[in-house]
Every structure is written in structure tokens, then in C-alpha cells.
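Quick note —
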Amino acid sequence: MQAFLKGPSSISTKPLSTKERGTTATAGGSGEGKRVRPIPWVEKYRPKCMDEVAFQEEVVAVLKKTLQGADLPNLLFYGPPGTGKTSTILAAARELYGPELFRQRVLELNASDERGIQVIREKVKRFAQLTVSGSRSDGKPCPPFKIIILDEADSMTSAAQAALRRTMERESKTTRFCLICNYISRIIEPITSRCSKFRFKPLSDKIQQQRLLDIAEKENVTLSSEAISYLVHASEGDLRKAITLLQSATRLTGGKEVTEKIVAEIAAIVPQEMLDGLLAACQSGSFEKLETVTKEADKCLADGSDEFLQLIGLCAVVMQQLS
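Predicted structure written out below.
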């Protein structure tokens, strides 16, 4: 992600004149001279309210009705990556607490990095036991509970999930939990039975194209129609991936038109010629090493290896045989 961020400019040691000092002071006092820190487009265009969440009408409708009573059950969001799970709960929390109390009432943890039982016993339990106080400045009702968001909860160990279940029971009066995962089958039954489950659908091609066009217009990026179609194809329903690819392609072109070829280079998709060669090799059955390599790749996938890397390795063997 650091590739998107520009480093700080070098500080000049040349003394400023009286006029320059006055201009700088005026700009600093008015706030116009402050340098805006660039942020990734994924965060810049993340939905700030429930109405901005795309293509999840059923989930948004149910949550809106729940928020009207300033109450919320324990939640379990599951579905493919990049479909708005984290953005939805963050937008709901902002509507519940407002900008003033949001940071005090919401704890967000990535369970893939902090997935052990010690984290549940320390961070989660300590935050859940804190009492809530304060009211919203706009006069709207403020719920008497906090929200703990556990992203990628399907990476938590079984012991950590068991400890989380006990914490959910004990702190039900002061805390609500929102678990976010890709595979609901990896969450133990005692937790799923205590949560309202919401499935997030992969985004349609039309929705992705519209969001990409909106971002391109706001960022003054020229996009060809073929590039938009290729972005949607490469992302496979993952809007976050599509936005990241668009930003990477824009930085690569340096402000010029983003074409299909540029997007293909950024996405690093296996060329169709290589896939055709792999298919022909499988049909001919003339490669002695192919079956062995295929079994090894299948085992690596079962152990959790990256699909793209295994496909590249398999294609490399085919290319060696063809050469």
C-alpha cells in the first residue's frame, strides 16, 4: 500500500523573506496551506453511511429498521471478499454513535493477525467490561452498548472462539459483537446461534462499473470501455480489488488513459495462451510429470496455499515440456 503514498517533501533550509513568512502564516492560520495526506482510494471512497452501501439491499434494509430503535443484536457477516461487509458495520456504527462517540464505542480487530485466546481474554474482554457514558450532541438516542468488530473471524482458533462465546454471554448488556468472515462453516455453532446472520452477495458487473466510473470521474482518470470491462472481469465481484487495480493502473500511466493492456499487466492474470496450452496438455496426456505436479498442487491448495501461485507453477511445468 506504500506504493500509493508519496513521501514527504524535503524541507528547504533557505530562510524565508518577511513577505513569505507572512504568506505562510496566513495560509497556516486559515488552514489552506496544509498539505492533504494522500490515502488509498479504497479508504477514500469507503461508504460513510448505510445508503452508500452497494448491492446489499436486504442487509441494509434490515439493519436500518434495527437502528431505528437504537438497538442491535450480535451480527455475523459472511460472504466473498470486497462485497462491503466491513464497510457496512462501520457505516452502521457511525449512524448509531455519531462522529463524536464513534472512536470511544467501537473496537475493530483483525482476527487473522490477533486470533489467539490471549487476545480474547485481554483486549476483547477488557474493552467489553468498560462502562459506556455520554450522549450524542445532536440529541439523537445513543445506545447503551459498545460494538466489537472481529474481521476475518474464520481465522480464529477453536479455543479463541470458545472464549469469545463466554465473553458474548457475560457482556451481553454492555457490548455487541460483529463477526466478519468469508466462510461461515469455520465458525463454531455456539457462536453462530447467538448472532443474526447476513450473507453478502458478490457485486454485479453493472454495480462495479458504475462505482469505477464514479471514482474515475472524481479522480480525473480517463478509462476506456475495454479497461472497465477488464477490471470487472479481473476482480471477480471484489470491488475492493477493482478499485485497487484502478489506482495502480492510474499511477502506472502517470495520468494518461488507462487501457485494457495496462490493467492486464497490473492484474497479472495468466495469459489465455498459457491456459490453452495447459488444457491441450491435459487432453493429450503425453506429459509424464503433469499428473505428479497436479497432485502436488492439489495438496498445496488443501493446505491453504495461494491458488494463483499454484496455477503459475503448473503452467511453468507445461511450458518447460512444450519448449
